[in-house]
Amino acid sequence: MKLTKRALMTGAAMALGLAATATGAMAQDKTKVGFVYVGPVGDGGWTYEHDKGRQAVEEHFGDQVETVFVESVPEGPDSERVMTQMALDGADLIFTTSFGYMDPTINVAAKFPDVKFEHATGYKTADNVSVYSARFYEGRAVQGTIAGHMTESNIIGYIGSYPIPEVIRGINSAYIHAKKVNPDVQFKIVWAFTWFDPAKEADAAKVLIEQGADVILQHTDSTAPQAAAQAAGNVYTFGQASDMAEYAPKPRISSIIDNWAPYYIARTQAVIDGTWTSTNTWDGIGPGMVGIGEITDAVPAEVKAEALALKDKLASGEYHAFTGPLKKQDGSDWLAEGETADDGTLAGMNFYVEGIEGDIPQ
Amino acid sequence: MLRLEKRRQPSQAFAYATPVMAVIATMIFGGLMFAALGKDPVAAIRTIFWDPLFGQHAFYYRPQLLVKGGPLILIAIGLSLGFRAGIWNIGAEGQYILGALGGAGVALAFYPMEGWFIFPLMILGGAIAGCAWAMIPGLLKVRFGTNEILVSLMLVYVAEQLLASMSLGLMKNPQGFGFPGSRNLQQYPSAHNADLIANTGMHWGVAAAFIAVIFAYILLTRHQLGYHIRLTGEAPRAAKFAGVSPARLILFCLGISGALAGLAGMFEVSGPAGQVSIDFNTGYGFTAIIVAFLGRLHPVGILLAGMLMALTYIGGEIAQSSMGLPAAAIQMFQGMLLFFLLAVDVLTSYRLRFGKGEVA
């Protein structure tokens, strides 16, 4: 008994000592990259994909880079403290992966001019703060095309998270392309007011199914809607943020995958090389930041071919997901024939396009 | 055989000792959990409890303890008054949100005017809004005999919807490119609840928390109302004979706890948080319930418990990023604290006896 206890204690002490020397010796040449996550790494969606990007950085650089992360960090003063703590601990580059971290990122960045910050989905930059986001609406165009073909009831359900431009853009893009292939299509939108809450998301999915929706699109991150669709039977869904392949081939018939790895590797490389500058990145299918998950056999071959053709046209830049003629919901003109939306309007999009029913919550 | 025997008098010594015992038990079992996760338990415990206070970057973390502990203490003080009298306000989180909306609402109404009177008006707005929200379960209980636990808790969810609506509509920053969230009050000097001395973390909310501790202490030990509160909790029938009006006591306890929670929200939104946003509330109102009990519903105890809770939050974050501990493990660790407190609390009113009990 005594012996075991002592052995345990020495073991602990040794581990402690080792850890201390290890960090001391390697702190010099290792580049330290921090990640602040809004959800748990096991959410299967948004944070999960960011963490896959972090793991890709570790794999790519090996011993050259050390990564640290803190998960489930509330937006606000807590996130500010977590970022400060990472910077104090010697991080060279910090990715803050939620919109609500915007002002905290700017605040902390001002205090640590030598540390580089990368804020996802925001719009405020500084000398040491870049912003990056993905053109998910391109993926929504592909989704809308498939959904328009697949629906029998002509009712497509949409689980919105928060009524912010990012989400509204996705709804508009999906609607435009569903309508293009199926003029009778109708969208029913439920706002969950959460990014990740399996219970609320399941409720939203059930409500939509009860209202006759047989295809459900989601802008929330859990797989709960997939499970609800599976339980209901003939309902199709799409993976969000992550592939959600465990629900393939049905109900999940395709997905939008966030692929942050190439960006995270490139930005880490820039810090190592000393070539990092403040940038504003908004990449889509072309550069690979937005991926389309496998379209399963539940989708007819010709629909699949059409969707993939659209994906290719979006990737090459030949086609823009918001191409006129398009009108706003109130009937006023937005884009003329052949005109495409500018990034400024898209970034702050706060209106539905013509044909979508209901109001954006205020 | 081991058995429990009721003490004639609750043990004073154990009343003081149980929180310490709970912390030690949490350290032991938390350490075992960290070890099971493959982390060095000694280093983890040291990171959580030692590093924020005396570690390399303590100069930054010590002020943060005040920032994190201030609202917890302020809310818990209010709750403890009601809890002592057997009045259970579980909805401090909602009152906290309403206080923030009240305070920010005043500020945004005056924007961009500058004036010394704006901040005091915001304080008033926050306190009144929080108090009014707590009056709903109070009046319903007094008038219709509803259960204040349920009503106050349900009103948290109503408050959250109101918060979302305000962030997206009425209080949305007109210059925010359509994104939800209000203007940042940190950039509005008249409304900014800044550190009283730079980089100390000591903002008006922390000062208010300390003042609340002192007032609660005086109220409970020196004032007749405090006596009534204690009496109602300990001997409701005796309190009735002593002429305590239950209705007035209910309204007072809910009102004061609502006002203090509202103040906490107002100081938070105008200071550390800076803006009204959809996810503004992060659970202070619920954590304060733990703080109130951990502090034995005693003002000084709550002060210590609030700082301890803040320590586990801040230390827990450090442990996450420096040791790779999952967030859930830290939450488990905090949960253990309350669990063990309640478990060892038995010893205050009961004593452990070995062997067979006497025949009564």
Looking at this protein, list some descriptive labels.
heterodimer, A: 362 residues, alpha/beta, Rossmann fold, six-stranded parallel sheet, six-stranded mixed sheet, 14 strands, 42% helix, disordered N terminus, B: 360 residues, mainly alpha, ABC transporter involved in vitamin B12 uptake, BtuC, 2 strands, 3% strand, globular
3D architecture notes:
Chain A has two domains: 30-134, Rossmann fold (3-Layer(aba) Sandwich); 136-257 and 290-320, Response regulator (Rossmann fold, 3-Layer(aba) Sandwich). Chain A contains eleven helices and 14 strands. Chain A has helices at residues 2-26, 46-61, 77-88, 102-111, 136-150, 165-181, 198-210, 224-232, 261-273, 301-316, 343-347, and strands at 31-36, 65-70, 93-96, 116-120, 129-134, 155-160, 186-191, 215-218, 236-239, 252-258, 280-283, 290-293, 326-327, 333-335. Chain A starts with a helix and ends in a 15-residue tail after the last helix. Mean pLDDT of chain A is 89; it is low at 1-27. Chain B is an all-alpha fold and 360 residues long. Chain B is built from 14 helices and two strands, in the order E-H-H-H-H-H-H-H-H-H-H-H-H-H-H-E. Chain B has helices spanning 12-36, 41-49, 51-54, 58-84, 92-110, 118-144, 148-168, 204-222, 224-234, 236-241, 246-270, 284-294, 299-323, 327-349; strands at 2-6, 350-354. The longest helix of chain B is centred in the N-terminal third of the chain and has 27 residues, at 58-84.
